[in-house]
């Protein structure tokens, strides 16, 4: 596990590796021991590319199924004003807390155990955001569209969907269109696809 450059902006670094203080990229430190999302997987890389393209500094972000917290942490480092990181797995919540501390991020990141229903019902500090990240499974994304996933984004917002294999893309797009969204941009690495809908 070595530092990884992603896009024009990111350098994902294992917790224990020292980095030259003159490094110009945005550094996100991750302890890869605990939960999914070390930056090595294409689905995570696709989301980081989308954050680079779509995050407007000062916006809030929701990271649904946050895993290690890498995406919420990266968004805050890129200028998001606040982020909600949600996962139904207690290990993911603990990993996100640990990785947030590693990156010196505390107050602006809300880390909660839960999922879409809890977020939509207002149980957490952020109920809607201009940028919503969902790096989960295609089948879960489709299910979530039926449960109101599109309502997480503020009017004019963007939904970044990842964890999708190329042969699942059509079903996800269909579910998104049924929810009133259109494809804004498509990213692909190997046979993994990320879709930005809005």
Q: Largest sheet, described in full?
A: 7 strands, mixed
Secondary structure tally: strands? 10
Binned strand content: 25-35%
Q: State the distance separating the first and last CA atoms.
A: 35 Å
Global outline:
globular
Structural class: alpha/beta
Q: Give the helices and strands as they follow along the chain.
A: EEEHEHEHEHEHEHEE
Supply the number of helical segments. 6
Mean pLDDT score:
96
Query: Measured on Cα atoms, how large is the radius of gyration?
Result: 15 Å
What are the main properties of this structure?
198 residues, globular, 6 helices, 10 strands, 29% helix, 3-stranded mixed beta sheet, 7-stranded mixed beta sheet, alpha/beta
Structure description:
Helices cover 29% and strands 31% of the residues. With 198 residues, the chain is α/β, with parallel strands linked by helices. The N and C termini lie far apart (35 Å). The model has no long low-confidence stretch (mean pLDDT 96). It has 6 helices and 10 strands, in the order βββαβαβαβαβαβαββ. The strands form 2 sheets. The chain has a 7-stranded mixed β-sheet. A 3-stranded mixed β-sheet has the order 1-2-3.
Fold topology:
Layout: E1 4-6, E2 10-14, E3 26-30, H1 42-54, E4 60-64, H2 70-77, E5 82-87, H3 90-102, E6 109-113, H4 116-120, E7 129-135, H5 138-146, E8 153-165, H6 169-178, E9 183-189, E10 192-197
Parallel strand pairs: 2-3, 4-5, 4-7, 5-6, 7-8
Antiparallel strand pairs: 1-2, 8-10, 9-10
Helix pairs in contact: 1-2, 5-6
């Amino acid at each position: 596990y070595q530092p990884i450059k992603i896009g024009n902006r990111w350098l994902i670094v294992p917790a224990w590796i020292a980095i030259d203080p003159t490094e110009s990229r945005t550094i996100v430190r991750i302890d890869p021991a605990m939960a999914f999302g070390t930056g090595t997987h294409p689905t995570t890389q696709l989301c980081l590319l989308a954050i680079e393209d779509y995050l407007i500094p000062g916006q809030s972000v929701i990271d649904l199924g946050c895993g290690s917290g890498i995406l919420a942490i990266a968004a805050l480092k890129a200028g998001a004003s606040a982020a909600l990181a949600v996962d139904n797995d207690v290990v993911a919540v603990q990993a996100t807390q640990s990785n947030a501390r590693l990156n010196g991020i505390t107050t602006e990141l809300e880390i909660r155990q839960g999922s879409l229903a809890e977020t939509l019902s207002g149980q957490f500090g952020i109920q809607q955001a201009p940028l919503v990240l969902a790096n989960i499974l295609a089948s879960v994304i489709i299910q979530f569209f039926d449960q109101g996933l599109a309502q997480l984004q503020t009017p004019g917002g963007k939904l970044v969907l990842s964890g999708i294999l190329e042969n699942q893309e059509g079903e996800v797009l269909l579910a998104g269109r049924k929810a009133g969204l259109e494809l804004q941009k498509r990213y692909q690495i190997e046979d993994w696809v990320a879709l930005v809908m809005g």
